[in-house]
Structures are given as C-alpha cells and as structure tokens.
Amino acid sequence: MSEDIRKYLKSEQVCVIIPTYNNAGTIDQVIRSVADYCDDIFVVCDGPTDGTEELVRQCATPVQVIAYQPNKGKGTALVTGFREALKRGFRYAITLDSDGQHYASDIPAFAEAITQHPDALIIGSRGLKHDNMPQKSTFANKFSNFWFMVQTGKKLPDTQTGFRLYPLRKMGKMRLITSRYEAELELLVRSAWRNIPIIPIPINVYYPPQEERVSFFRPGKDFTRISILNTFFCFAAILYGYPSMFVRRVVQRIKNSPTRTGNE
C-alpha cells in the first residue's frame, strides 16, 4: 500500500515539509517513517543548536535540507519550505512536526482526502481526550477553535495541530505577519478568508509521558502572541475577512453560472 501512496503523491505533486528546531532525539525516526510513503521530503532546520542539522544531513534517507541561523520560528520555517516547494513545482505540501508526535501512517488519509477535495486545506484532528494530552493543550485548542469560528464563521475540531496538507498553488505566495507558533492559526484564518475549503480528518497522535515530553512552546510569550493575533483578526474579519469571503463567493457564482444568451 505504501508504494501505491508513494506513486500517487508523486503524480499529484505532493511533498512533505518537516520544520525542525532542536529535535535531535526524534528527527531521524520521523524522516525514516515519512520516507515509507513519500520520496519528496524537505527538512527545514530552523536554527537548531543541538546537532539536529548535522543529523539531518547525515540521514541515510535522501532529503532536501534547508538550513539557516539563528532560530526564526515555526512560521518562518513553514513559509521557507512552501516557497522552495512552489519553486520546484509542487502543488501540495504535507507538514508534520519533528518531535515524533505525528504518525506518518496517517499520510494515506491525506492522500485520500485530496482525491475527494482537490485544492482544499486538509487538517488533521487529534483526539482531544487522549490520556496523555496536557490539560493546557486541551484548553488552548478550545480557545483557538472558538476564535477561529468568530473570525471565519467556520467550525473546526482542532485548529492547533501541525499535521496538515496545504494547497500551495491555491494559497499562492501568502505573506504572513507572524513568524512563530501563531503562524499556523494565521494560515488557517487567511485560507478561510480566501474561501479555500478546510477539511478536517481524524489522525492519531502520540503524547509521551510528562517526564519525557519536549516542548518549545513558551506559555507566557506564545499565548500572549496568539491572543494579540486573535484580537487583530477579530477586527480584520469585520473590515476585510467577511467582506472578502462574500465577494469571492459572488464572483465564483458568476463564473459558474450558465452564459446568458439572447435578450436576457
């Protein structure tokens, strides 16, 4: 089955982008598991200081390495990967985290989703009642889901997962105003404002025990940044987001309507 998925992803011009910071303990396994399903893998080394970049370059699995210093944030890493993928002609990019939380075995589900929803943004939805899921993560996700609905009028079960498939050509060269964790929320909101369909699919997730967990999320700083972004987007939704969605819907209906003839 993995060989069929590999061929399908190649035919549909799908690559995988793995942004990574200090994930020396997990990056090799993540790359090898992804390589079971996809040949085109970009690893964006976002200013690591623990030898992650060296491990990626020495990995037996052939990958495209994008590296820079210093650390600039996950948003910058994603956009850097998107630009390189677009430059190389890819239509879609699957993104997943490099900490081992996501299962590459879910990649076929993303492949199936784009056969049914071409040029949609496919977003993985974690089980938020997972035994080891941190309580603060559950609260943060519910908080994010609520504000996403306010800003777009759309409901999603999980707006914070990093396991996604982005329709690169449909999104175009989207320039973000954020650069760190909150960028993933910005990508969702702005895609919704462009009337890009956002389709959730269930995914598996691994949460290690508390004593083994590695996280670079800074609760104080990052939550503050997300709150500021949500405040900005609430105002922007009124001034731009909702009017933009309405205009795009009208234009699309006109394009899809039968050509008028005669004296009509």
Structural summary, described in words:
- The chain is of the alpha/beta class.
- The chain has 9 helices and 7 strands; from the N terminus they run αβαβαβαβαβαβααβα.
- It has helices at 2-11, 27-35, 52-58, 74-87, 107-116, 135-152, 168-171, 183-193, 219-256, and strands spanning 14-20, 41-46, 64-68, 92-95, 121-125, 164-167, 198-202.
- A 7-stranded mixed beta sheet has the order 3-2-1-4-6-5-7, with helices on both faces.
- The N and C termini lie far apart (54 Å).
Considering the chains and any ligands shown, give keywords for the structure.
7 strands; seven-stranded mixed sheet; 14% strand; disordered C terminus; 46% helix; 9 helices; 264 residues; alpha/beta; globular; single chain
What is the CA-based Rg, rounded? Answer: 19 Å
End-to-end distance? 54 Å
Number of extended strands: 7
H-E string:
HEHEHEHEHEHEHHEH
Outline of the structure:
The protein has helices at residues 2-11, 27-35, 52-58, 74-87, 107-116, 135-152, 168-171, 183-193, 219-256; strands at 14-20, 41-46, 64-68, 92-95, 121-125, 164-167, 198-202. By secondary structure, it is an alpha/beta fold.
Topology:
Blueprint: H1 2-11, E1 14-20, H2 27-35, E2 41-46, H3 52-58, E3 64-68, H4 74-87, E4 92-95, H5 107-116, E5 121-125, H6 135-152, E6 164-167, H7 168-171, H8 183-193, E7 198-202, H9 219-256
Parallel strand pairs: 1-2, 1-4, 2-3, 5-7
Antiparallel strand pairs: 4-6, 5-6
Helix pairs in contact: 6-8, 6-9, 8-9
